[in-house]
Amino acid sequence: MPSPSLLRPAAGLHRWNAPLGVAVVLLGLLGAMALVPGALTTDDPRSCDLADSLVPPSRAHPFGFDLFGCDLLAKTLYGARTSLLLAVSVLVLTGLLAVVLGTLAGYAGGLLDGVVSRVTDVWSGIPLVLGGVVLLSATDRRGVWQVVAVLAVFSWPLMLRIVRAGTRQALTLEYVTAARALGAGPGRLLTRHVLPSAVRPLVVFASAYAGVLVSAEAVLTFAGVGLQRPTESWGILLQQGGEVASRAPHALVLPSLVLVVAVAAFVLLGDGLRAAGRSAHGR
Predict the structure, then answer these.
(1) Residue 183 placed within a domain
(2) Which of 179, 187, 163 is nearest to 9 (CA)?
(3) What pLDDT was estimated at residue 165?
(4) In whole angstroms, what is the distance from residue 114 CA to residue 144 CA?
(5) Residues 226, 119: contact at Cβ < 8 Å?
(6) What is the pLDDT of residue 8?
(7) 135: domain range?
(8) Into how many domains does the chain fold?
């Protein structure tokens, strides 16, 4: 789980630093894997030959082959699209809900704020993976959008609490108080003054939380309650690799390394954005 320090406001996220630079490079590569995997490999992940089953890595095939004789590098590259799309989709859904409810609760206060706060306190106590296991175990069909929905169900409270806290803090800022004194209506006050300040911490948090979502999909799929074949994802590769790890360690280790790099890239992005905001804020 990303550090609570990510909740601190991050104004002026424009200063570069080492973690941010490394994250941008790594995420650029991951983005290329997801968007144009065919530009990074000439092998087709669906072109399999049982004669190549579990053949170890070589110069021509750096990741080797899986149990079905499919090129593992190609499957890893094409699987990036599903894993990253899933994480981004969850962030978009939860982010939109958090911005709407969190801003309204933080601005209105009173009963609405109290109800929203109590619900999020209770709901956020349910671990992401445990909640995912419970809900996904109850359904036979587990496609990308089913997993997205389940992860979103257990992720929105975290996002909402950040936006609510950011909204309440923004309302105490001098320029917001001045705008209100000058007669700015609720709509203008929220959209022009409060929301930009309240959303910045959410962007920082979401950058790191994307890594949590990518790893959550992999854990759920590895455990047998996540995505199902023939969907290609990093979680599917780990599940398949785990079945043959004793005979062909490369089938599990190499996709796992790519997953670790992806998670690290998102964590570095969150750290870099937080550091950039702290540096700019302290000028």
Answers:
(1) yes
(2) 163
(3) 93
(4) 34
(5) no
(6) 43
(7) 22-41+56-281
(8) 1
Closest C-alpha among 76, 87, 86, 88 to residue 258: 76
How many helices (DSSP H) and strands (DSSP E) are in the chain?
11, 0
What are residue 65's DSSP bridge partners?
A: 71
Residues with Cβ within 8 Å of residue 99, at least 6 apart in sequence: 163, 195, 199, 202
Length of the chain: 283
The residues, any chain, with a CB within 8 Å of residue 155's CB and separated by 6 or more, are 90, 94, 128, 209, 213
pLDDT digits (tens, 9 = 90+) for 110-135: 899 999 999 999 999 999 999 999 99
Token pair recorded at residue 42: 């000439």
Q: Which residues contact 13 (CB under 8 A, 6 or more apart)?
A: 200, 203, 204, 273, 276, 277, 280
For residue 229, being part of any structural domain is answered with yes
CB neighbourhood size of 278 (10 A): 18
Helices (H), 124-230: 128-137, 144-153, 156-170, 174-181, 186-188, 195-222
Q: Residue 137 is which amino acid?
A: S
CATH of residue 190's domain is 1.10.3720.10
pLDDT at 198: 87
Q: Is the pLDDT of residue 11 over 70?
A: no
Structure tokens at 227: 């995505």
151, pLDDT greater than 60: yes
Query: Is 17 part of a structural domain of the chain?
Result: no
Q: Which pair of structure tokens corresponds to residue 215?
A: 């790893």
CA-to-CA dists, residue 92 to 29, 89, 149, 152, 203, angstroms: 22, 5, 11, 9, 11
The residue to which tokens 């110069």 are assigned? 59
pTM of the model: 0.88
Q: Domain for residue 152, yes or no?
A: yes
What's the token pair of residue 44?
Answer: 């087709």
pLDDT > 90? residue 17: no
Confirm if 205 and 270 have CB atoms less than 8 A apart: yes
